[in-house]
Write a structure and sequence with these properties.
This protein has 618 residues and is mainly β. The protein contains 4 helices and 52 strands. The strands form 8 sheets. The protein has a 19-stranded parallel β-sheet that branches. Strands 1-2-4-6-9-11-13-16-19-22-25-28 form a 12-stranded parallel β-sheet, with helices on one face. 37% of the residues are buried.
């Protein structure tokens, strides 16, 4: 009994302890507070909410009525500060200190002012700056991170600053999906050992410099960014080990890409329609140059590639697409020494290249080839290791047939290939099919074989003849096209019991082979039309007969003899007339009594005559 009481006491103690743990845990859980224009919200100022909250609390900021929040908010603890809508406007700034690491600032419209920083990360890490609109109004920086690592800047719209985003002495930050537009100095700026950052899918347009890496900003990864309509596109200044991949760098007034250093990898980018494509000026005399492979570099006004200091290393500019197969044209747009051979070479093929009318062929434009002379080429051994940038447009054209009903279609490359389905949907012939990319046109011929669709209709003037009757069969051969059928022949073996009695045709000739009982109608070419044969057959004996001629043609006809009618004839034996056999025995047939007796008829006649003889009384 004592043992039972002891166990109960221990159980009660554990339950009470667990209850206290739950109570205190609930008290320590993160709070959700609100900021708005009046007392229905917890606070009326963002900074007041920040000061009152504890780590991990969430502050939801509602629009300030018809007003804005005029605040310079300092975040010095881990908080989630979220705008209720984009109408939540702050005239001022946010500063996140080291003790505010792990915080989130999301969804605000923030109007800066001259010479200020709109969002400042000061020694902070693991901060998320998401979906804010920053109107700089000549602010110094839209987002400025100093000595701040492993932060995420995603989906922000930044304009009107000197620098849109600046990362100084920081490492391993992620910039994704930001729109950095119309800033007076640099869209995205990295300086002072700012390394190992990832810049992915940002749009950096209409700035003075698009993206600028300065002073040992090394080993950064710039991928799938759009850098367009800036005074200068991407600049690598005293920075090495960076990888630029799959970026689109177009319509910049100066250089699309400029590097004055070495050891950077430039791969699968589209660099077009700039004043200069790529400019190199390696001032370090170490014999090491840039690696420039599998890019699309075309239609830059002055040079596609300019290498100013050739003594300090020859750049590896092999396996690029320069907008043409021609060696002469490629060399004319390269200045200085650069190893540009071999280059990517464009080809076209059809599978199959010989089709029947009504069928399809897969047309493929391939850039997975290389050439050293612009005439001969070799397929790339492994295009997965590098190829023309995905999304390069290719226009396919044809004069005969179509691409889904159109004479031209544009598709985009993937893995160095672009494809289109060619339809042989007109007439037979040789279709000249071309593919065009940039300044290069390649073409081939697709042979379209004729296609016919023969049919045979069969009628008769007597489907149930008698033995001895001659029956006329009318055979009409037709062609539903689209092309004329060549070498058309109809044959029919007349079965035993029917006899050939003659035939006439309105097209071609016929023969009858009595030994094989075969009639052959040689028609030749059958355009879209209806030749006739009239066949007479005499029924020699009763029976069931199948009239089923067959057609042959040298023209492709996928439905041959599937549209051929046949008739079943039920021939009956002739009916013999009935005859009566005369008998030698003669029988007398007695008259039968019918009508009025003859004596009464005579008496009536005498009375009538007497009536006329006796004179009438006066």
């Amino acid at each position: 009994m004592k043992e039972v009481k002891k166990i109960r006491k221990q159980a009660i103690t554990l339950a009470i302890t667990f209850l206290f743990v739950l109570i205190f845990a609930g008290a320590a859980s993160a709070a959700n507070v609100t900021v708005g224009p009046d007392s229905t919200y917890n606070y009326q100022a963002i900074q007041s909410a920040v000061d009152a909250c504890a780590d991990s609390d969430t502050i939801t900021v509602y629009p300030n009525g018809n007003d804005v929040y005029n605040e310079n908010v300092i975040v010095n603890k881990l908080l989630n500060i979220v705008a209720n809508s984009s109408d939540t406007v702050v005239n001022g700034s946010f500063t996140i200190t080291a003790t505010g690491s792990g915080s989130t600032v999301q969804g605000f419209t923030i109007n800066g002012s001259i010479h200020r920083v709109v969002i400042y990360l000061d020694g902070a890490s693991n901060v998320k700056i998401i979906g804010n609109t920053i109107n700089g109004f000549n602010s110094r920086h839209g987002i400025y991170a100093y000595n701040s690592n492993i932060n995420t800047l995603t989906g922000n719209n930044i304009n009107g600053c000197a620098n849109g985003i600046s990362l100084i002495d920081s490492i391993n930050n992620m910039l994704t999906g930001n729109n950095v537009l119309a800033n007076t100095n640099v869209g995205i700026y990295l300086e002072g050992y700012s390394s190992a950052h990832t810049l992915f899918n940002n749009t950096v347009n209409n700035n003075h410099y698009g993206i600028y890496l300065y002073y040992y900003s090394n080993f950064n990864y710039l991928v799938e960014n759009t850098v367009a309509n800036n005074d200068h596109g991407i600049t690598l200044d005293a920075s090495t080990g960076n990888t630029l991949q799959k970026n689109t760098i177009t319509n910049n007034q100066g250089y699309g890409l400029w590097s004055n250093y070495y050891g950077n990898t430039i791969i699968e980018n589209t660099i077009m329609n700039n004043n200069y494509g790529i400019g190199l000026n390696n001032y370090v005399n170490n014999g090491v140059a840039e690696t420039i492979n599998f890019n699309r570099i075309y239609n830059n006004t002055i040079y596609n590639l300019e290498n100013r200091l050739t003594a300090n290393g020859i750049p590896d500019a092999t396996y690029n697409w320069w907008g043409t197969n021609s060696q002469t044209e490629i060399a004319s747009k390269i200045s200085g020494t650069a190893n540009y051979s071999p280059w990517l070479y464009m080809t076209i093929n059809a599978d199959p290249n010989n089709v029947n009318n009504g069928e399809t062929s897969l047309i493929t434009a391939s850039f997975n080839n290389y050439s050293t002379d612009g005439v001969t080429y070799t397929p790339l051994a492994n295009p997965t290791l590098g190829h023309l940038p995905d999304g390069t447009p290719v226009a396919f054209n044809t004069g005969l047939g179509s691409f889904g009903g159109s004479k031209t279609i544009e598709t985009l490359t993937s893995g160095g290939l672009a494809t289109a389905t060619f339809n042989a949907d007109e007439t037979a012939g040789s279709a000249v099919v071309s593919a065009v990319t940039d300044a290069q046109t390649v073409n081939l011929n697709v042979v379209i074989n004729p296609k016919s669709s023969l049919y045979l209709n069969l009628t008769t003037n007597n489907t149930n003849p008698m033995v001895g009757d001659t029956v006329l069969y009318t055979l009409k051969v037709g062609n539903q096209g689209p092309d004329a059928a060549q070498d058309v022949v109809m044959t029919y073996v007349i079965p035993q019991g029917l006899e050939f009695s003659g035939a006439t045709v309105d097209n071609g000739t016929y023969t009858y082979d009595a030994s094989t009982r075969t009639i052959t109608w040689t028609i030749g070419e059958v355009p879209v039309g209806d030749p006739y044969l009239w066949l007479s057959l005499r029924v020699a004996q009763a029976g069931h007969y199948l009239i089923n001629p067959t057609l042959t043609t040298s023209t492709y006809d996928p439905t041959l003899n599937t549209n051929t009618q046949f008739l079943t004839v039920n021939a009956q034996a002739a009916v013999e007339p009935e005859t009566v056999n005369a008998q030698t025995e003669t029988k007398t047939v007695r008259m039968q009594k019918t009508g009025i007796p003859i004596n009464y008829l005579l008496l009536a006649l005498l009375l009538v005559i007497g009536g006329y003889i006796v004179p009438k009384r006066k």
